Amino acid sequence: MSRLEDRAKLILVPLIEGSPFRLAPQDQIVVATWASMKAMVAEHYGDGDITTDRVLRARMMNKQLPPEEDWFVWIGYYERKKWISHWASTPFLVLPEFERGRREDKRATHYNGHISTQIVGKLFIHIMRFPDTAFLADWNFALPDRGLLCRIWPPGSYGIAWPTPVMSDRDADRASEAMKRRIEGAAARLHAKDLADLSKK
Angle, nearest 10°, between helix axes 2-17 and 25-42? Predict the structure, then answer.
């Protein structure tokens, strides 16, 4: 993967430093690939849960591209003040309702999604893997300025003028926790429904 590191370095330096740069669509693919590779590697350190399988890692190695489906990457320009998180990753399992209904044990036995946030200098990177691609395609972060985060994967056809509007500590915290809070809320509602169904039996 050293070839990817070399290609990404020239693009990443101005993003990390916050220097003026025009991020062309092809550049966005390189950054998204580099960020996805780092997310995959980071899962294998410490006691973290692995959410990417061998097929996804092989695609990364052979094609040097992020996963083609259910994988989304956003970036933003972030000037840290007091927010201390450098790396955060949350795995989760999303199952269709018919499958949840027939499972006696509601605990996750594997994962098919994850959320991770990376901070590299002034570059904020947010990655989400979600089994419902249509859901993520319409996902919007509840931030005061909707231009704070730019999606770079799946790739678009437009360039990005860097730096984008600056993210505050609060913006970074909101963006990194948004999906996690939504999933936790949904899980709590499902759990309450399961308990209610049990009480009727």
Answer: 110
